[in-house]
Amino acid sequence: MNRARTAVEGGYVAGVGRILSVDGGASGLVTIHAPGPVYAYAREDYDWWQARLSRKLADGLFGEHLTTEEVDVNGAVIGERWRVGPHLLLEPTFGRIPDLAFQRAMGEPRWAKTFARSLRPGAYLRVLEPGAICAGDPVIVSDRPAHGVTIAVAYQAHLTEPRRRSRVRRVVPPDTGTA
């Protein structure tokens, strides 16, 4: 299988990835609609965590609506467009800020800090056009803004780099609760 490189390996390959699972493995069509964000996490990042935690991690464990494959979720440029299946259109807005509920669910001491420091937050996505999707649907990345601020860059600036926050604030949508 020819996989797109991750942000850690360097570079971003735009194009087509796919949905590996929807809502942790729901079968059949699932309709995604506004209001409220959609959370996406990459299978490749789950694999990275599995190696570090020495245990299997199932799709949906992190509470994501979409588990992707061959989509660099953390390398997504804020404001780009993701066409999923024939109708759903999504826009990456920001990464997940882990909380104590997530830590309890994982059963790992200091999980919130460990997850945050990994810079693999996954992405919250705004629903621009609702639509029904299912596992196996393609994710086509398009309309990438020129500002180049990715989910990972914005996340790192928010957590550890106050000097870069003003640049990030200019591109992160105001309703993400991160500015």
UniProtKB/TrEMBL annotation:
Coiled coil spans: none
Signal sequence range: none
SUPFAM superfamilies: PK beta-barrel domain-like (SSF50800)
Domain spans labelled MOSC: 14-142
Molecular functions per Gene Ontology: catalytic activity; molybdenum ion binding; pyridoxal phosphate binding
Pfam families: MOSC
InterPro entries: Benzoxazolinone_Detox_Enz (IPR052353), MoCF_Sase_C (IPR005302), Pyrv_Knase-like_insert_dom_sf (IPR011037)
PANTHER family recorded: PROTEIN YIIM
Protein name as catalogued: MOSC domain-containing protein
Protein species of origin: Asanoa hainanensis
Native organism taxonomy: Bacteria, Bacillati, Actinomycetota, Actinomycetes, Micromonosporales
